[in-house]
Amino acid sequence: MPVIVNGVELNDADLERELPRHADAGNPMRSAITALVLRRVLLDEAGRQGLDAEDEEVAIGALLASEARAPQADEAACRRFYQTHPERFMVGELIEADHILFQVTPGVNLDMLRAHARVVLDELMADPSRFAEVAREQSNCPSAAVGGSLGQLGRGDTVPEFERAVFALPAGGLLPQLLETRHGLHIVRVTRRIEGRMLAYEQVAQQIAHALSSVSRDTAWRQYIKLLVGRASVEGIDLDDGEPERVFGGGSAP
């Protein structure tokens, strides 16, 4: 079924050019089509307002700058972010960690896997000295060969959910519950910590201001685009409430 936006049918050539940009999406085809719908809606509004559409990027940029203005982050907001998220401005902070991975594979019975991992964790809580031995026997990670050792880790070296857990542990600490990440179930301990130092606010103020302003701008853009989509005539695809935001993307704070 063709997709028609405000009476204009999306063509195959545009879709072929757009599709590679969405290779990592859960549904690349739908994501690409949604992006083309949003672009068409923006161009139509730019044309309605008499903005020069010979250069489409310039026209869209001018439209967003005019209709979706966002406030710049002020000094108070930047300092508040700095004080609220000190871990983001630490340098030199390192840990040495070990883990045992129970990998979640297609077809695995997750309840049984979790129950087994919990039994192993309980045994290690009673006798942590067996960690390396058990890692060699049980872990589905290549680190099993070295007793589960992951070596030194800095922030950004692992997936966020793993990082949050291990950097919150004290040296010698064994996490008393299973840690679930996109890779599976983990039993984790930290064997050593090297404390870092926090960068001075003056060193990161410009970075924070830029990031917060980008988040504010992108939020304003997404809200404006959702408004335009609500007014547009779109046939051949039903957009979920959150879909334009997911496809359009957005900035993130530092």
Fold and architecture overview:
The structure is a single chain. By secondary structure, the chain is of the alpha+beta class. The chain has two domains: 117 residues, no CATH class; 103 residues, Chitinase A, domain 3. The protein has nine helices and nine strands. It has a four-stranded antiparallel sheet with strand order 5-4-7-6, with helices on both faces. It has a three-stranded antiparallel sheet with strand order 2-1-9. Strands 3-8 form a two-stranded antiparallel sheet. Strand 6 and strand 7 form a beta hairpin. The radius of gyration is 25 Å and the shape is flat.
Which labels suit this protein?
254 residues, Chitinase A, domain 3, single chain, 4-stranded antiparallel β-sheet, 9 helices, 3-stranded antiparallel β-sheet, 2 domains, flat, alpha+beta
What are the secondary-structure elements, in order, as H or E?
Answer: EEHHHHEEHHEHEEEHEH
Mean pLDDT figure: 90
The percent range for strand residues is: 15-25%
Distance between the termini: 42 Å
Number of helices: 9
Sheet with the most strands: spatial strand order? 5-4-7-6
Backbone structural class: alpha+beta
What's the gyration radius in Å?
A: 25 Å
The dominant shape is: flat
Biggest sheet statistics: 4 strands, antiparallel
Domain unit count: 2
User: What's the count of strands?
Assistant: 9
Low-confidence stretches: none
Percentage of residues in helical conformation: 40-55%
